Structures are given as structure tokens and as C-alpha cells.
Amino acid sequence: MPISKAPAFNLKVVLRETGLAADTLRAWERRYGLPVPQRSPGGHRLYSQYDIETVKWLMARQNEGLSISRAVELWKEELAQGRDPLADAQSQPATRSPSFQQPIFLPPETNIDSIRSHWLAACLNFNESAAEQALNQAFSMYPVETVCVDVLQRGMSELGLLWYEGRASVQQEHFASGLAMRRLDALLAAAPPPMRNQTILVGCPPEEWHNFSALMLTLFLRRRGLNVIYLGANVPISRFQETVSAVNADLVLLAAHHLVSAATLRQTALQLSAQGARVVYGGRIFNVHPALQGSIPGHFLGERLDISIETIERILLNYPDVPSVPALSQEYFEALRVFMLKRPLVEASLNQHYQVGEMPPDYLETANRYMGNNITAALQLGNITYLDSEIEWLVHMLKSHNQPADSVSVYLSHYANALRQHLGEPGSLIVHWIQSTLE
């Protein structure tokens, strides 16, 4: 009998049924797009029995020794082949799918997942020599693209999840990131000269500092003989415009991973498209919020790097028409205008509400900046519920700094009061979202 996909359960039921922590479940939803809850009219997550069984399936794969990223990949592979992973699990409850078995042609310590585990363990121990040795072993056995994706990218993703769960420090993440970027730089320096006449401009829009994926795409495209000009992170729109004209780029590739940079990517793409440039784009935030893809005047590259490369090759042969981008509604336009005008007053009111010692000033400043920037981005993108995934960072930031458990609720309540005081009716859009989040 098919498992029901009707939304019938709230978050508490899912946590009780699976035993998973709320922070971990939300991190899975944000990073990997699984499970996929629906929303009540009030904006609350509603889960089906199918969602609950999906979480259990992923946890079972973890118990078998897989990383969560690999488990999600296997799930998507099953769906891509027209199979329901849960149907397979029900029909063969005592049989382990061959997809989960170790390759028989390699000893366990040399398969790619084990090498990634060794590299990650070395990074967590700040052991540069062991980390480099693991990478050297991987590159001696596997293609460059495989190592970059399955060791470096997935390793950094797993490390990010460890940080989110409080099991890794910022220093460990920065150490691993530094080693990974250094290796990519070396591979780029050794890449062959371009053999094809197409030029691709690659860069991250304003406010986007995470350039790892963009750098990896640059490497992969250069290895295919393309002339790729890499501009780096946090590139002003004017610099993109100048360079597009100077090099006559066939494509401009933009990458964004956060809500704020998704908004700046949209602005960049709009101006480049008006200039006649052909824009393609990708990044984590577009996997978290697929609806965002309808806001960008360009073509989405796909959820994975291998898909992105093939999409680029196809678009170079025949660039499809760009879908029309809807204009911002009057409600959102007015809310954005008033919020940008009154934001300093809102933040001043928050500073007055917090007495000395209630929250350290630097934490409050960080929270105000993060909250204000993301509200602006959500309004620019025309959907205030995009803030749902971003609020988790604020929760974690305050929790990691040993703030009281209710500190986020208190902060949001103060924020809503300040919005009512200074924005009036145009701020009701944001206030209603805060009320829904508090509920």
C-alpha cells in the first residue's frame, strides 16, 4: 500500500517518530532539500507520512556508514531512475541494495568515501601533512573531477554540517577550507591552455564570499579546453559589465549560496541581460529555494556540478530564450522602500530595548545586520518566507555563544515591535512572518 503524501503532521510529530534533532532536520531541508514539507496557510511546516519515512530511510543509510550527503545522492539517483526508494525498502526489508555496498575492486581504505573520511579527520585534527597525503592518494587513483567533488566539496559540506551541529569549530572549517582552496589553485595553475574559442566569465556577485564552487567550475571548464576568466568573490556589478564588454564573453556564470547574494545575483543578472550578456547561474540557495529560479533572468545550471557542466556545454551550442522575470508586486515594493528608509530607526529601537548585559553589543550588532540584510533580500526577491531557512543561522549564532534558549524569540518579539512602531502598515508583511515564526 502506498505511503501517504498528504500533509498531516507537525514538526513535533516528525521529531518524535524519527528521534532526529530539530536543528539537524532543518539543516537537511536547507542543505539537501529533503524532506520537502508543505506549508499551512499560516506558514507552518506540515509533513506527510512519506516525509517521515524519508527521514528514517536517510538515517538508516547513515547507520550503514554513509554520509548524509551520499545518502541524499542515492535517494535522488533512485528517483532519477524512476524508482521509489521507500517502495524498494518495503519490498526488500531484509536485503541491502547493491548501491550501498562497497566497490569490490578496491579495498575499503582506498575507496573515495574512505579517503574523504581520512581527509576530514586530518583537517579536524589540524594535521596538514595527513590531509595532503589523503589528497595525493585520491588524485593518484581517481580523476581530478571525482576527487574535487567527492573529497573536497563533499568533505567541506560535511564539515559545515558538523559546525552547524556544534561538533566542529570555525577554526577547523577555515583550516580545511584553506587546504582545499590551495589545492584548487594548484590544479588551476596546471590546467592546459584553452583549445576552444568560447569565453566564459565566472564570478560571485556582491556580498557573496563563498567562491569554492565557482572556482571548481572554473577548473572543470578549463580542463574541457574553454577560455574561462575567473573574477573571484564579491564582484561589483560594474566590474562584471566592464569585463563582459572587454572580453566579449559567450556566457557569464554567477554563483550565490545565501539569500543576500541571491538578491545581488538577481540585480547583476538583470543589468547584464539588459546589456545583451547571456547569464547562467547556480549555487546552494537555489537548491534550498527552487522558486528563486523564476526570479533570475538567466538559466539555472542544476543542483550538481556534473549537471552544471553538461548544461553549460548544451547552452554554448544553443542559448535558449530567457524566461520573463516577474516584476516586484506593489506590496513588496512598498515594504522594501519603507524598510530601507526606516531600518536605522528599527535597529536603534532594538538597541534601546536591550539593557546592558542582556546581550553583548557585538552579538546584537551581528544579529541586527544579519536580520536586516536578509529581510531586504527577501523583499527584493518577492517572498518573505525565504527567511525561514536563514533564521536558523541566527538561532545557531546565539546558541553557540551561550545565549539563553529563548534569546531568539525575545529578539524577534522586540524586532516586531520596532517594525510596528516605525514602519506602520507597510511593515505588516514582515511582522506577520515574525509572528508565524514565533508560533
How far is the first residue's CA from the last residue's CA?
35 Å
Q: Going by CATH, what is the homologous superfamily of the largest domain? A: Cobalamin-binding domain
Helix vs. strand class: mainly alpha
Shape annotation: globular
CATH architecture of the largest domain: 3-Layer(aba) Sandwich
CATH topology of the largest domain: Rossmann fold
Along the chain, the helix and strand elements come as: HHEEHHHHHHHEHEHEHEHEHHHHHH
| DSSP summary, beta strand count | 7
Strand content: 5-15%
Classified by CATH, the class of the largest domain is: Alpha Beta
Number of domains: 4
How would you sum up this structure, described in words?
- The model is unreliable at 91-108 (pLDDT under 50).
- The strands form two sheets. Strands 4-3-5-6-7 form a five-stranded parallel sheet, sandwiched between helices.
- The protein starts with 10 loop residues before the first helix and ends with a helix.
- The protein folds into four domains: 11-100, Multidrug-efflux Transporter Regulator, Chain: A, Domain 2, CATH 1.10.1660.10; 108-189, Methionine synthase domain (Methyltransferase, Methionine Synthase (B12-binding Domains), Chain A, domain 1, Orthogonal Bundle), CATH 1.10.1240; 199-317, Cobalamin-binding domain (Rossmann fold), CATH 3.40.50; 330-438.
- The chain is mainly alpha-helical.
- It is built from 19 helices and seven strands.
- It has helices at residues 11-18, 22-32, 49-63, 68-80, 85-91, 112-124, 128-141, 144-164, 170-189, 212-223, 237-247, 259-274, 284-288, 305-317, 330-353, 361-380, 387-400, 407-423, 428-438, and strands spanning 38-39, 45-46, 199-203, 227-232, 251-255, 279-282, 299-300.
